[in-house]
Amino acid sequence: MSALPAYSRGTAHLHAGDALRAVPLVPRNLVLGFLTAYRAVVSPLYGDVCAYYPSCSAYAVGAVQQHGAVKGAGLSAWRILRCNPWSHGGVDDVPPHSDFRHALTPRGFVVPSRKD
Amino acid sequence: MGSDLLFAASTTPAASSGGFDLLGIVMWPFKALVEAILVAWHWLFTSLGMQGAAGLTWVLSIVGLVLVIRAAVFPLFVRQIKSQRKMMEIAPELKKVQEKYKGKRDQLSREAMSRETMALYKRHGTTPMSSCLPLLVQMPFLLGMFYTLSDVKKHAVAGEGGVWLLTKQLTKQFYDATLFGVAPLHTSLVDAVQHKPAGWETTVAILVVLVILMIGSQFFTQLQIISKNLSPEAKTGQAYQMQKIMLYILPLGFIFSGLFFPLGVVIYWFISNLWTMGQQFLVLREMPTPGSDAAKAREERLARKGKAINSEGKVVPKAAYDAEQQKMLEDAERLRAQQPKRQQPKSAKRAKKDQDHAKKDPEKNVNGDKA
């Protein structure tokens, strides 16, 4: 499992009082759960194959964190299409959301941010 | 290939039935293609005079299917090998990056190192990575193969054919075909033990041997990659630890799926693994990852034959290699002699003072050395 880039990791935690505010974040966290499992179980089988940094699966994590399940999936699909034998690879970061209002946990899940 | 593994880990032997079959519609073209290849080989073997209903004919057709599918992705493999060779040219720069981050294990340093390495590849228009899309594209074809071979039983019992060229008659023929005259190609270990058809002991023995060979070849190939073809840098990462764990967990998963795989699928898998092993052997022997154990073994082998690898990554006689090294040393020494002597660094204050001195009195020592 290639490591997540720094912008995909945070220090926040989900607080009980934020449960309601976390509801809109459920879809993207479900996808992130799937991606985490994939990266833990399937990614190691291939070793490092991705021509880019961050790797396609790490890019998918970043894209879903920033843009949600649907747009994130679209960005990831486009990235995988670009990761073909004819590309030269290189550094290709997720375009950040212009107004990202949530916080990230150390494992890369998205939780509502707190004022304090 | 990793995709074989993934696909085995994620599929269940029984296809879903009933309702709106979206998966069936999506998979149709892939199944049809696999059937076409299988039937084409079967036609070829029968026209060569082999018996259409014989188990061997169908086993050879499966082998043919493996050959076609693996040969189709072979150009990608060659492409990767070629870029591996080009890697030799950027090895010095790569080494510089690795030196810079030597011993730094924290996540931020590793991230920065990955970024610099990838940027370096891009600058030189070459990458040792095989890229992700091919792995993903292969997946539906492998699934198509799996469904085609394992659905023979379901279709034959229902008196149907496959999705396209595998007709009702051919499906029946495949269903009735037996390996060595006893083991039906559609039987899995669980089937054989449960239903105990005539000669089931032999069937079980054949299946057990083939499943062991299938798992063994898979394990061996993975082990070779991990133990021989990784550079020391790659062995420090988190990914390496994970790969080592998976090396032992995966065979366990395969033992489980091996119970349910029909003989035809097991044969396909085993032949496919043999192909992978062959490719792996070639890579380890002729173009190992620089710095890996396999690369060291290759250098030793070449040294015994009086040869060495020059700076462009080509194999040359030892004498030519020594001459090149000597020339490189001389060039480096000449370059150093030409370079001006390093100036002693000085503080901004002193530099300014010297400058003022030089302006006032150009005759005096400009370097500000004590006269």
| Radius of gyration of chain B, in angstroms, nearest whole number | 31 Å
Helix-strand pattern of chain A, N to C? HHEHEEE
Which secondary-structure class do the elements of chain B indicate? mainly alpha
Enumerate the spans of chain A where pLDDT stays under 50 for 5 or more consecutive residues.
none
Mean pLDDT of chain A: 91
Q: Characterize the quaternary organization of these chains.
A: heterodimer
The assigned structural class of chain A equals: mainly alpha
Measured between the Cα atoms of the first and last residue of chain A, the distance is 34 Å
Describe, in short, the structure shown.
The complex is a heterodimer of chains A (116) and B (371). Chain A is mainly alpha-helical. Helices cover 41% and strands 9% of the residues of chain A.
Explain how this protein is built.
With 116 residues, chain A is mainly α. Helix content of chain A is 41%, strand content 9%. In chain A, the strands form 2 sheets. Chain A has a two-stranded parallel ribbon with strand order 1-2. In chain A, strands 3-4 form a two-stranded antiparallel ribbon. In chain A, strand 3 and strand 4 form a beta hairpin. In chain A, helix 1 crosses helix 3. The longest helix of chain A has 27 residues. Chain A is elongated, with a radius of gyration of 14 Å. The model of chain A has no long low-confidence stretch (mean pLDDT 91). Chain B has 371 residues and is mainly alpha-helical. In chain B, strand 1 and strand 2 form a beta hairpin. In chain B, helix 2 packs across helix 6 and helix 9 runs antiparallel to helix 10. The N terminus of chain B is likely disordered. The chains are: A mainly alpha (116), B mainly alpha (371).
